[in-house]
Amino acid sequence: MTTRLDLSGQGLTSLPGLPLPASLEHLDLYDNQLTSVPDELWSLSGLRVLNLAANRLTAISPAIGALRNLHTLDLGHNELPALPDELGELTGLTEYLYVSDNRLTEFPAALCSLDRLKYLGCTDNRIPTLPDDLSGLASLREFRLYGNGLTDLPESIGTLSALRELHLRKNLLTSLPSSLGQLSELRQLDLRENKLTSLPSSIARLSKLDKLDLRWNKELREPSWLADFEARGCMVLR
């Protein structure tokens, strides 16, 4: 019984007449030249891992919402201007969702329904703001948002109580919400290449933080509590 099919790096421009066995659990189409995928793919209800990264996709069918057993989905490095709301119906998506390096201009609010997801990569798009309510991403451990042009963060970022890594490099942030101090599990906070002038004092409460990267914030006034961070072994990069 075929459960895995690896067609990565084959230079494929289409999948005409390709038989996709109903038993398929892992489908890898990474690094091809696909501009679309056959509708047959969305009927593979047993899929657990789907890699469509590094193609030339400009749209994803709403029918993707039928893949309820997916735990890992990679749509990165394509040409997607938007994502279907039906991604929020992928209740089995627990491990990994990667939508980086596309042409997204909005963070899909539907993703905030993925309350079991651990990793979300949404870097190198064109997203200036996040939804007001991020609390649905309750299991998220790693959140990558660098290279988007973000101008602010919602206070609800502080509700992500499982978060261990928050990557915000190369945005347009001038300030941060005080709710960041509620992220009690946070280990890494990357704030490089923003426009920060100060840091909220609440960050000083992040007792598990072991890396704080502040480089290339030219106008940042460093708070005195950074010395306390360094004294307890946190790496502070200026």
Overall SS class: mainly beta
Number of strands: 11
Poorly predicted residue ranges = none
**Sheet with the most strands?**
11 strands, parallel
State the helicity in percent bands: under 10%
3D shape: elongated
- Could you report the average pLDDT, rounded to the nearest whole number? 96
- Percent strand equals 5-15%
Taken in chain order, the helices and strands follow as: EEEEEEEEEEHE
Rg over CA atoms: 20 Å
Spatial sequence of strands, sheet with the most strands: 1-2-3-4-5-6-7-8-9-10-11
Q: Give the distance, in angstroms, between the N- and C-terminal Cα atoms.
A: 54 Å
Short description, anyone?
With 238 residues, this protein is an all-beta fold. It has 1 helix and 11 strands.
Describe this structure in words.
3% of the residues lie in helices and 14% in strands. The chain has one helix spanning 226-231, and strands at 4-6, 26-28, 49-51, 72-74, 96-98, 119-121, 142-144, 165-167, 188-190, 211-213, 235-237. The protein has an eleven-stranded parallel beta sheet. Helix 1 links the parallel strand 10 and strand 11. The chain is elongated, with a radius of gyration of 20 Å. The model has no long low-confidence stretch (mean pLDDT 96). This is Disease resistance R13L4/SHOC-2-like LRR domain-containing protein. Keywords: Leucine-rich repeat, Repeat. It comes from Amycolatopsis lurida NRRL 2430. Residues 39-144 form the Disease resistance R13L4/SHOC-2-like LRR domain.
